[in-house]
Amino acid sequence: MNGQVDPLTDKEIEDRLAELPGWTVADDKLTRTYGFDSHLPAAAMVIHVAQIQEELGHHSEQTLGYNKLTIAVNTHSAGGRVTEKDFALAQRIEAVAAGHGAG
Q: What is the DSSP string of 27-68?
């Protein structure tokens, strides 16, 4: 994991978002909502994301609904702005989302 904690520029964010369909940046948070067929896969993904976050030492806000999970992240040590760490976490989450039936 890159130790960089400098906020990304708008152009850098735009370039990285092009590689992560479904993710957006609003209110200085990198965000995505995943949909599921039912509640259990959504809840299971919460645990899987928590494991990834512990491994990376970088944590997001997760909001679990009946059949959806919203993830929002920024880097507190960079003044609550979006950094490379946030995109690294999002890429890891994307890598496991399909295995949970996320859409």
A: TTEEEEEEE-SSHHHHHHHHHHHHHHHHHHT---EEEE-SSE
